[in-house]
Inverse folding.
């Protein structure tokens, strides 16, 4: 006699099979609907305030940040993972390409992430809270890393041959500009927030977009960002790996809090909606 099929139950929009730890948050603190707009703006403001604190504190740790960057570079060379310099020099040989990458690095980081958040808030309110929680958690973890483990980018390593492409090509928003430098944390390389945000945006589009070409663009976006951060000498490979790991922790924390996956596959979502 064959065993009876494993029971499947629905709890707050999640399909559960077998025994699984329950969510850490009570049901009233994990609703599925979209939160109020002012609540989201307040959360964003708190994150920016936390970033400001790290930005103001980190310059005092410049020597330690440079030391960590040298250690990362030396370790990558020993492990033969040091592709940054080759990518940096190859991209710099093509003027229009590297200038475009400079603007990509300076602008799409914010434009795409905010755009995906708005798209998610408006078009997928039942998925917004979970996906946003993963993103905000990962970003907060990155800010903690900046505060306690400041790390300089490759372009700051004098004598190693890296080209600071923004400064060399006089791209708008040059790091040499006092205004830009005062608004950014120059020692926030580890983990890479560009990778955290681009991977989150890419996953969100890949899982939730309806058009195939949008899902494909979503899947390609983190790969393009990875290339850009190396080509502009703003991050090491290790920074990118740390960014991906930090985002994974963000999704893990979100799952522990809510007991739900941030993104449902179409098959699982269909099963949920078909339940009486």
């Amino acid at each position: 006699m064959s065993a009876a099929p494993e029971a499947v139950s629905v709890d707050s929009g999640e399909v559960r099979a077998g025994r699984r730890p329950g969510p850490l948050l009570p049901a009233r603190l994990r609703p599925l609907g979209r939160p109020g707009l002012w609540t989201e703006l307040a959360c964003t403001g708190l994150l920016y305030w936390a970033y400001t604190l790290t930005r103001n504190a980190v310059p005092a740790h410049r020597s330690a940040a440079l030391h960590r960057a040298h250690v990362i570079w030396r370790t990558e060379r020993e492990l033969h993972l040091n592709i940054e310099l080759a990518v940096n020099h190859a991209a710099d040989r093509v003027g229009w390409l590297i200038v475009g990458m400079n603007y990509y690095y300076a602008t799409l980081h914010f434009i795409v992430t905010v755009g995906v958040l708005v798209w998610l808030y408006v078009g997928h309110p039942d998925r917004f809270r979970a996906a946003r929680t993963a993103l905000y958690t990962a970003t907060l973890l990155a800010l903690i890393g900046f505060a306690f483990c400041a790390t300089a980018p490759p372009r700051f390593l004098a004598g190693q041959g890296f080209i600071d492409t923004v400064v060399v090509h006089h791209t708008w928003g040059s790091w040499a500009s006092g205004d830009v430098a005062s608004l950014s944390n120059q020692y926030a390389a580890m983990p890479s927030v560009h990778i955290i945000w681009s991977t989150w945006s890419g996953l969100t589009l890949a899982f939730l977009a309806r058009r195939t070409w949008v899902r494909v663009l979503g899947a390609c976006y983190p790969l393009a960002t990875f290339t850009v951060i190396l080509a502009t000498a703003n991050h090491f490979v290790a920074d990118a790996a740390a960014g991906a790991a930090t985002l994974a922790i963000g999704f893990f924390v979100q799952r522990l809090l809510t007991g739900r996956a941030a993104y449902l596959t179409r098959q699982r979502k269909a099963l949920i909606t078909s339940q009486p």
About this structure: The radius of gyration is 21 Å. The chain has eleven helices and two strands. Confidence is low (pLDDT under 50) at residues 1-18, 270-276.
